[in-house]
Design a protein that fits this description.
Layout lengths: L14 H15 L4 E6 L6 H6 L13 E5 L5 E4 L1 H14 L4 H7 L2 H13 L6
Helix pairs in contact: 1-5, 3-5
Length: 125
């Protein structure tokens, strides 16, 4: 006989966690479908914009990244709320505790998280 339980956990992600995740996605996870990423003008304050060191830092500062399709004119917008939703979906669908995620993800996981954030499913594989 088998028994199943569902455990709900929470975890507080810091800016560095989000920056690292977006960086991993941009530098190896999503490049096969995303040809370019730019910070959306006006999506963050001038002060916050001046403080970002890398494009991947914009999301944690409340900015929006515009992701450009590698083969068409399609674009998508990634912001902090969408990224957090993508992380939550990933953890639920892959039975990973949010606290464990930051210790174990790779470029493929970062790609999956961004796709969940943008599309609510995997579109590109």
């Amino acid at each position: 006989m088998e028994y199943e339980i569902k455990v709900i956990t929470s975890h507080k992600f810091c800016d560095e966690d989000l920056n690292d995740l977006v960086s991993t996605a941009l530098e190896g996870g999503i490049n096969y479908w995303c040809g370019e990423a730019k910070v959306k003008e006006g999506s963050m304050s001038e002060k916050d914009y001046d403080e970002i060191q890398f494009t991947s830092d914009a999301v944690s500062k409340g900015g929006t990244l515009i992701l450009f399709d590698a083969e068409s004119d399609d674009t998508w917008e990634l912001d902090r709320d969408k990224l957090l939703k993508g992380i939550e979906m990933y953890c639920e669908k892959h039975n990973v505790a949010p606290s464990d995620l930051m210790d174990m993800y790779d470029a493929n996981d970062a790609d999956t998280i961004v796709q969940y954030a943008l599309f609510n499913e995997l579109i590109f594989s």
